[in-house]
Write a structure and sequence with these properties.
mainly alpha; 124 residues
């Protein structure tokens, strides 16, 4: 009986800890490609990068965002996501440059222009 009580307590503690999926990673800001985007190569690379970004796979997401930008150099969402990735990697000067480009090309998108992380970088 003690064995089952111990297992129950362990299960309860594991459930309360969140299991590692509901922490900061779940709140990583990221922007999927607009649904009406005509450049599917850029859209697909950006969306694939977002899938990795929200998991904290910065080393995988960074080249995907760079490929999206090579396919569409004025892609605000990809610049934004690259900025988030670079920030997560601790590359703050590079992140600031990416956020500047995101704002340049996406100033009319409040998900970009009103983002707290972007504002933090641009006020530095």
């Amino acid at each position: 009986m003690k064995k089952y009580a111990l297992l129950f307590v362990i299960f309860l503690l594991a459930a309360c800890s969140g299991g590692g999926t509901g922490g900061a990673m779940a709140q990583t800001p990221s922007l999927m490609s607009p649904s009406d985007m005509s450049n599917q190569e850029a859209a697909n690379k950006n969306n694939e990068g977002v899938d990795h970004l929200v998991q904290g796979h910065y080393d995988v997401s960074k080249p995907l965002f760079e490929q999206a930008l090579a396919a569409k150099p004025n892609f605000a969402e990809a610049y934004f996501n690259l900025g988030v990735t670079l920030d997560g990697m601790g590359k703050h000067p590079e992140a600031t440059e990416a956020f500047k480009k995101a704002l340049e090309f996406g100033k009319d998108n409040p998900k970009i222009s009103e983002n707290a992380l972007l504002k933090k970088h641009l006020s530095m």
